[in-house]
Every structure is written in C-alpha cells, then in structure tokens.
Known about the structure:
- The chain is mainly α.
- Helices cover 77% and strands 0% of the residues.
Amino acid sequence: MASKLVQLQGKATQASKVAAEYGSSYYKQLLEKNRHYIQQPPTVERCNLLSKQLFYTRLASIPERYESLLKEVDSAKQLWKNRQELRVEDAGIAVLFGLECFAWFCAGEIVGRGFTFTGYHI
Length: 122
C-alpha cells in the first residue's frame, strides 16, 4: 500500500509540473480560440441572465422534444404491428442497441461501486 502511495505521489508531482509548464499557455490559447463565446462585461449579473436564458430556453424546448418522443413511440408501435415483415437486419440492429444499453448500464454500475466487480474493495 505504501508503494502505491509513493507511486501516486510521483504521478501527481509529474502532473503538476506539466500543468504548471503548459497550463497557462493552454488557458490563454483556449480563451483566444473561443473569444466569440465570451460575454462582456463578465459580471455576476450577466452570468445569472445567461443561466436564466439557458434554463427557460431548455424549458421551452420540452414540447418539441415531447413531440419527437411521440413520433418515435408511434414508429416503434408500427414496427411491432408489422413485425412479420421485419427484416433480419432491422432485428439485428434492435438487438445490438439493446445490448449496448445493457452494457452501458453494467458499466455505470461498476463505476458506481468504485470500479469493483463484486462490491468489495480489495
């Protein structure tokens, strides 16, 4: 355990050296590249205004999203009604999509347990 701590300290020291050396120039370059996104004047009031604009814009987009959801559900219902005409390729895509969702669920569970498979820390 002590050797891992020393190893972790060494990596942290190395990372801080890299950040100290390149961090400032990267920060300046990033701000220069994205200058058109920066709002002037950079005040708390302006940030609060932008935050409210984002919230209410997202809130206003809910009906459009709901309509899209209903279209997707109707499409799935039509596929289910015409399942005898379903091609093997379409069924394969649906199965792969389901497996991918399950895999992401499993990965999320593993991450949530602290990257352990059994739930016990070793």
